[in-house]
Predict the structure.
Amino acid sequence: MTKVVTVFIIILLTSTAYSQSFDNLSGGNSAQTQFSDKPAQYILGSGDILLVNVNLWGHVQRPGIYSVPSSYSLIDLISSAGGPLSTARLNDVRVVRKDQEVLKIDIEKFLKTGDNTLLPILQPGDTIIVAGSIQDIFTQIVGLARDLAIIFNVFVLSQRLK
């Protein structure tokens, strides 16, 4: 029995040491490949259209990663994603650039004035966040309270049946 435990401990220590050395080796390679495998910021699409990858988060129909033509505006992107949800707060849309610059965009003002200078041209790696309204947060809290009340009601009814 002692021999089995000793062999098991040796195998466990050997595999741990091997995995640590492998992690160090792969960690060093990943740092080198991180810069060499950096994805292209622009992609050439069909018809020789220059595409950029942007992230779209928040209260839109289909949030996600989009490859859009470099000439696209914020309105074009949100339209491609199916448009904003009814709970979207269009006066507070944020564009976070790769250089950590954060732009606050008022789409409602654009919709009232039609001034295209209010909309930024999308850049590779931009993250666009469409915030939700206070009404949406209130609706979620009420929904949670409703669900808890149903669970409590089921619990009370099950206690009465006993």
Remarks:
- Residues 16-37 have pLDDT under 50 and may be disordered.
- Residues 2 and 8 are 10 Å apart (CA to CA).
- The chain is about 50% helix and 25% strand.
- The longest strand covers residues 50-58.
